[in-house]
Structures are given as structure tokens and as C-alpha cells.
């Protein structure tokens, strides 16, 4: 297991994650990992992902998104179980135990309306608890022209769930709020809490923008039933052996199962 270089993540950054709901950590992955994951994403773009093959449809659009590649792709599997990302997640979440939810990639095509609307991640997961985060790994340079992410500072503390396009009365477009955003280089990571409200701007540049995401949960997270959450179709319709232990879960159960495996990070 490769360890995250702990000098790259300071106690101040861990406190900033708790306070602001998002941090940017520089140079988490080296060039070998970056090249490996760029190749892995390029190989999988436009190819049905492991869950799509089993009948879970992919949303079409100007952002290519596929998830759960770790089930079939050795590089994505290595990223989850052998890269420094697991340790980064455990440090930021201040968690002893760590479970991996799933991975995915987002490729924003050039010069198309590829904005992803304001949302946070928790309503899309069948979980309950506070220790949960996404690591968004840049595989290209990222800036305002090619689709960077923007976050409403400390919005994880609002305790509100926001689905993309929902437009609830409590959500005011972000002018009154402080926005956090970073230009990034390949290998840099954003780590955001599942409740931090964010969007990504459209890619008006002439090149694609690639990123890989991994989702992590810690000690206090348990299973919770949400009708419109991952994996987004009725469980009866899924015929994958890895889902058997997931299907048996009841609210409050430990999250551990074949689909949400425990990851050793020390
Ligand atoms: O990569 C993007 O542009 C959007 C990613 C995002 O919003 C998410 O992963 O929640």
C-alpha cells in the first residue's frame, strides 16, 4: 500500500475540511499514477460501464460519466485499494475504519454546454452519517475555462440535501455566499464533504477535462434507504453477485458489504 505523503496534508487542511467542507490537496498522485489513470479513463470513455452492462443506464450528455469501474478494471481497482487516496480520505475524515463506496470518472467534452448544476452528494447515496467525502482527482489542468468545480463555503454545515435541478425554496443562487474554487494540475485532489453544495462550470476551452472520483465513508456511517439513490434502479432488477449482501441491508446496518468494501489504508 502506498502511503500519502503526510507532509502534503497538514492538520490545518484537515481542520479546513471540517470548517469549509472542501479542501484542495496538491500533488497527491505522482506522474506514474496520473498517466495510468489518464489511460484508464481514455480506455473506458464511451464504453458501457460494469453496471450499465447489467441494465443500469448512463445519462447521456456533454459530460461522460461512468461509475463502479473498480469491479472490472484493474487500474481503477488499484486506485481504490493501493493508491494514497484511501489514506487521504481516512485522515480528512478522522476515521479509524474506512469503506469505499464507488469510483467514477467525469470527462467534460470541449466547447459544449457541460455545466453540472448545484447539488450535494449525500442524497445520491444510501447512507446516513457525517464521515463521508468524495475525492475529485484532476487528470488535466483545470481552470475556469474548462470546467472547474465551485463550492459554497461551509454549506455542509447547513445540513440540507440538494439534488441537481431541484430548486427548493431554501436554496438561493450563490451570490450571497462565499465561493471556494481552485485552479488545479494533474495529480491535485479536491476533497469535499458529501453535504457541501457545489457545481462545475461549462467547458468553453478546446480540450477535454478529465477527472476521476472516489467516494469514502468512515466510522459513523450506516446504511439508510433512499429511493432515488445509488444504484438508481430497483435492487430486484440487479443480477450481480456483488449486490447480494447490499440487498439484505436494513436502515442502521453497518455499511460493510461486497459493494462497499472496507479498505486497509495503514
Ligand atoms: O466533474 C464534474 O464536473 C462534476 C463532478 C461533481 O459534481 C461530483 O462529482 O459531484
UniProtKB/TrEMBL annotation:
GO terms for molecular function: 2-oxoglutarate-dependent dioxygenase activity; iron ion binding. It comes from the Bacteria. The keyword Magnesium does not apply. Keywords: Dioxygenase, Oxidoreductase. This is Phytanoyl-CoA dioxygenase family protein. It comes from Dendronalium phyllosphericum CENA369. The lineage of its organism: Bacteria, Bacillati, Cyanobacteriota, Cyanophyceae, Nostocales.
Amino acid at each position: 500500500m502506498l502511503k500519502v505523503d503526510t507532509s502534503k496534508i497538514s492538520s490545518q487542511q484537515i481542520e479546513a475540511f471540517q470548517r469549509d467542507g472542501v479542501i484542495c490537496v496538491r500533488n497527491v498522485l505522482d506522474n506514474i499514477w496520473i498517466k495510468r489513470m489518464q489511460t484508464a479513463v481514455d480506455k473506458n470513455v464511451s464504453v458501457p460501464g460494469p453496471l450499465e452492462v447489467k441494465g443500469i443506464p448512463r445519462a447521456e450528455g456533454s459530460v461522460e460519466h461512468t461509475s463502479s469501474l473498480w469491479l472490472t478494471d484493474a487500474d481503477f481497482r488499484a486506485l481504490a485499494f493501493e493508491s494514497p487516496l484511501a489514506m487521504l480520505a481516512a485522515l480528512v475524515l478522522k476515521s479509524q475504519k474506512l469503506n469505499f463506496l464507488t469510483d467514477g470518472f467525469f470527462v467534460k467534452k470541449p466547447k459544449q454546454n457541460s455545466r453540472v448544476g448545484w447539488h450535494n452528494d449525500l442524497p445520491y447515496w444510501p447512507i446516513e452519517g457525517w464521515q463521508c467525502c468524495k475525492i475529485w482527482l484532476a487528470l488535466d489542468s483545470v481552470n475556469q475555462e474548462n470546467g472547474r468545480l465551485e463550492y459554497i463555503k461551509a454549506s455542509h454545515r447547513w445540513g440540507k440535501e440538494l439534488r441537481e435541478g431541484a430548486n427548493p425554496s431554501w436554496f438561493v443562487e450563490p451570490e450571497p455566499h462565499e465561493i471556494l474554487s481552485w485552479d488545479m494540475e494533474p495529480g491535485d485532489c479536491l476533497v469535499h464533504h458529501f453535504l457541501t453544495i457545489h457545481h462545475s462550470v461549462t467547458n468553453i476551452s478546446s480540450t477535454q477535462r478529465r477527472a476521476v472520483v472516489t467516494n469514502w465513508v468512515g466510522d459513523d456511517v450506516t446504511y439508510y434507504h433512499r429511493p432515488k439513490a445509488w444504484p438508481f434502479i430497483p435492487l430486484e432488477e440487479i443480477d450481480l453477485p456483488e449486490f447480494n449482501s447490499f440487498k439484505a441491508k436494513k436502515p442502521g446496518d453497518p455499511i460493510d458489504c461486497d459493494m462497499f468494501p472496507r479498505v486497509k489504508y495503514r
